Amino acid sequence: MKYEWKKEEKNLYFPKSIPELITVPKQKFFILKGKGNPSREAFAEEVGVLYSLAYAIRMMPKQGYCPAGYFEYTVYPLEGIWDFTEAGKRQETLNKDELLYTIMIRQPEFVTQEVAEKAIEIVKKKKPHPLLAAVSFEMLEDGLSVQMLHLGPYDTESQSFKLMNEFIANHNLEKRVFAHREIYLSDARKVQPDKLKTVLRYMVKPIL
């Protein structure tokens, strides 16, 4: 039976539309780092490279290579950690050109460094791209976090962040880092802005 993250990991990917506290375990990712407005064509290319690697692993058995522990699964959604340059943090209005981002796609537990490198080799042969040299394979752990589901355009996320900040303050918590994580449950190319679903997450810790 195919592993469906939408069914098996609802606590991580389908939170309520109000803030809640959650503990996020260690997870494996293909990662790319960048700077600038995500509406740039370069950003779309970066996303495409990550998906090409994710699907390379998903399809490995059909290519004659089956990693140890492999199981059928649905490819995980795109995620991003968003921050600002120091100049961007000082500006009163949002300047997307000053955004710093780390975009990623989670990989199943059976994926090792060796399997990740194999995927990069496969994509280099079938669909070469200079960005492949910048991709890393890493394990990240958000740990204790506050998250909620944001419904609507990305430009209205500030409304949800306000609720999350109030929740953090009211529960004797503080953010561990300025940056936040977003998980994109909708394809912005196919879904109307008011129908977009995005998980928003802050890493937090108790105030002692």
UniProtKB/TrEMBL annotation:
Lineage, top-rank taxon, reads: Bacteria
The chain positions of domain GyrI-like small molecule binding read 19-199
InterPro entries, per the entry: GyrI-like, GyrI-like_CCH_Lin2189-like, Reg_factor_effector_dom_sf
Which protein, by its recorded name, is this? GyrI-like small molecule binding domain-containing protein
Organism name:
Methylomusa anaerophila
Q: What are the leading ranks of the lineage?
A: Bacteria, Bacillati, Bacillota, Negativicutes, Selenomonadales
